[in-house]
Design a protein that fits this description.
The chain is mainly beta and 427 residues long. It has five helices and 28 strands. The protein is globular and about 60 Å long. About 12% of the residues have low confidence.
């Protein structure tokens, strides 16, 4: 079967995409071809494919493998799922650069229904400089501490609305001394994997300004800094958690025997449940918008089911409490968030919209809080096909893996603003 190809929507020139050195870059794509042939999975040609229980992609060049990770989510180990709903819309993958070598590798993509590759993209660094903002990680008193160095910081852009150089938009940098922000957490490491093992504290000038709690189990972090307007007044700390390693607790009985027999070993039962239920691979992010004059987080952006949402922190809160929902709490947050969704204009970017965007609010052009406008929930582009008396229930996808342990990010002490919710980006 042939005739399937990829179009990179944020390409600088045909099949060339700028990437953020030491950051996470969005690959915004559309898949082209006969609609009947597109359903299936796409993935990087060079990938772990379950080796050592890892599910992640790499660039083509062997020497760059450790420097670039190609990430996707939703617990789909096979790759990025394409169905009849998403085949005609935008698709997204993330590329994390975390090495020292700022090179220009390629990524070749395949589809499970084709023999030949469906497309290749070359990654070109948006800027080369020894002073680009980047993270350092050190171990101190049993904790891991991430800090920043450098004085070249990129202008902020949304995860779902990356610059399109072909349309005269590009990744831009400004000269800014990075603030004294650090990220502290505990971790478990072995010969194969490394995992977060505590809540995550974000500290500025020795004061905690944010904490991430909840279901961070089996994840690993990455962080980057942005400037909103090109100066030091408003900065965004973008913090990622990504799950690429399918972990198991000790004493797991392989071969499925323990699934059929009772056991009093709590750790074994827990491990078996997690091995069936945890959502791997996956990734989530929080954008902590910091007012550097106030020295605190004032807004937090995050994602819910291909939609960006912004929470305003309460005025009297000194520490932003971000959380990854887990277990039953996940389902509570899913249904609660569905009530808050509204029908924004197509391609609505809540940060950059000229009339109602967050940038306008920060510049003082509109100090009033947007009034809630709850309307009928829009039809999802990614759905669960559950037949109820002949009707299709359109809601958050409930996969076999991650039924209750789906990672749902939200803010405990912030209020979601309906006017700061993006359109469904896969439409």
């Amino acid at each position: 079967m042939s005739g399937i190809s990829l179009k990179f929507l944020n390409e600088k020139e045909p099949n060339v995409v700028q990437y953020l050195p030491y950051g996470v870059t969005t690959l915004e794509m559309k898949i082209l071809g006969n609609q009947k042939n597109l359903a299936g999975y796409m993935y990087p040609k060079n990938r772990s494919d379950g080796e050592n229980n890892f599910y992640v992609g790499y660039v083509d060049e062997k020497y760059d493998t450790k420097n670039f990770l190609v990430l996707w989510g939703a617990g789909r180990r096979e790759g990025l799922k394409i169905d009849k709903e998403s085949a005609g819309h935008r698709l997204f993958l993330q590329v994390l650069h975390h090495g020292d070598d700022v090179s220009s590798p390629t990524i070749t993509f395949e589809h499970n229904k084709t023999v030949l590759p469906i497309g290749t993209v070359r990654l070109e660094p948006a800027k080369k400089s020894s002073n680009l903002a980047r993270t350092n990680m050190n171990e101190e008193d049993g904790s891991y501490i991430i800090s920043f160095t450098g004085d070249r910081v990129p202008l902020y852009y949304s995860r779902w609305f990356p610059p399109r150089p072909s349309e005269n938009e590009r990744i831009q940098y400004r000269h800014i001394e990075v603030p004294q922000i650090s990220i502290k957490f505990k971790a478990d490491k072995d010969e194969v994997s490394q995992n977060v093992a505590s809540d995550i504290d974000i500290i500025m000038d020795d004061d905690k300004i944010a904490q991430i709690s909840g279901d961070w189990c089996y994840s690993w972090p990455h962080a980057e800094l942005f400037t909103v307007f090109g100066d030091e007044r408003y900065l965004v700390l973008r913090f990622w958690l990504y799950w690429i390693h399918e972990n198991y607790s000790k004493n797991v009985l392989m071969g499925g025997k323990a699934l059929l027999e009772e056991t009093e070993d709590y750790e074994t039962r827990l491990a078996l449940w997690e091995s069936l239920d945890i959502e791997v691979p996956d990734m989530e992010r929080f954008d902590f918008l910091v007012d550097m004059d106030m020295r605190k987080v004032i807004w937090i952006g995050t994602d819910f089911h291909y939609q960006e949402a912004w929470f305003k922190l309460k005025r009297d809160e000194a520490v932003a409490e971000a959380r990854i929902a887990n277990d039953v709490e996940t389902l509570v947050q899913v249904f609660r968030r569905l009530e808050d969704r509204f029908d924004p204009p197509k391609n609505y970017d809540p940060m950059n919209d000229a009339k109602t965007g967050l940038k306008r609010l920060l510049r003082g052009k509109d100090e009033s809080e947007p009034k809630p406008e709850y309307v009928q929930t829009p039809e999802e582009c990614v759905v669960t096909n559950v037949d109820h008396a002949g009707k299709v229930f359109r809601g958050p996808a409930t996969l076999k893996r991650g039924l209750t342990r789906k990672h749902v990010p939200y803010v405990k002490n912030g209020s979601i603003s309906p006017k700061m919710v993006s359109s469904i980006v896969t439409c």
